[in-house]
Amino acid sequence: MLIELRNISKTFDTVQANSGISLVVPPASIQGILGENGAGKSTLMKIFSGFTLPDSGDILLDGERAVIHSPADAIRHGIGMLHQDPLDFPPMRLLDDFLLGREGGLFPDRRGAARAFRELAERFGFVLDPEAWVDSLTVGERQQLEIMRLLWIGSHVLILDEPTTGISLPQKEKLFATLKSLASDGMTILFVSHKLEDVEFLCDSVAILRQGRLVGTAKPPYLTKDLVGMMFGREIAFPERKKSPPGASVLSVNGVSLEGARIRIRGVNIQVRAGEVIGLAGMEGSGQSIFLGACAGLTRPVSGAFCLDERDMTGRSHHDFKREGVAYLPAARLERGLVPGLSLSEHFVLSEKKKGFFIDRRRAKKLSQDRIAAYNIKGEPDSPIESLSGGNQQRMLLALLRDPLSLVLVEHPTRGLDIESTVYIWGKLKERCAGGTSIVFISSDLDEILQYSDRVLVFFAGRVSPPIKAEELSVESLGLLIGGKGWEDFERGEADA
Amino acid sequence: MSGDILLISLAGVLTAAAPVIFAVIGETISERAGIINLSMNGTILLAAMGSFTVALATKSLILGFLAGALIGGFVAAIVAFASVTLRQSQVAVGFVLAVLCRDLSYFLGNPVMGEAGPRLSSSPIPLAASIPILGPLLFRQDVMTYLSILLIPLAWVFVFRTRPGLVLRGIGEKPSAAYVRGANIGRLRYRYAVIGGAIAGLAGPIYSLSVKAGWKGTISGLDGIGWIVLAVTIFGGWNPVRAAFGAYLFSLLQWLGLVLQPAMPGVPAQVLQVAPFPLMILTLLLVNVGNAEWVERSLARLPEPTRRWLSKLLRAMNATPPAALGTPFEDGE
Ligand SMILES: Nc1ncnc2c1ncn2[C@@H]1O[C@H](COP(=O)(O)OP(=O)(O)O)[C@@H](O)[C@H]1O
Ligand SMILES: [Mg+2]
Question: What ipTM was reported for this prediction?
Answer without folding.
Answer: 0.83
